[in-house]
Amino acid sequence: MPAAKLVIKKRMLFIQGKVRPCCHIQAFVKADVKAVLEEHFLTDQLFKRAAYAQQWPEGAIEIPAAIAPALSTFLKNDACPEITVKTLLCGQMHQGSNVWEMMAFELIAKLAFDNFAALCDTIGDLNRDVVYEGPGSTPDFDFNVEDAVQRLERAAAEMAA
Fold first, then answer.
1. Are 159 and 42 in contact (CB under 8 A)?
2. Are residues 117 and 56 part of one domain?
3. 148 lies in which domain range?
């Protein structure tokens, strides 16, 4: 099971006498990861519009050509929300002024979730030592005591068999 999941709900909702395109996002994580997030990382920003208004980061989720103009406008608009760990865990709904704005919000939510997933992966590395040997290489071992004990027990069982 992945460490985190993002649920995206898109609806046309009747709000203040008008039907509006809305997008609700919410992240779900395992209880132990959620406890660490709530204790230490609730206010960490996963998406800050000022950081993305001028340039989309290389390696981030691709911007579909159809929504590129709407995304550009949305990122410069005050309606573009900041997304934090807290807002992802509690859920956040955006009322778009049109369907293109709703789609732009969905895209930034996916980018924020990618950042959230990276944070969750880092939380998984807390209380263990990771050996980094450079890009493209993966270590044959780590220093997590529980993993080492399990590996030794498996090796001993294989030798005995």
1. no
2. yes
3. 129-161
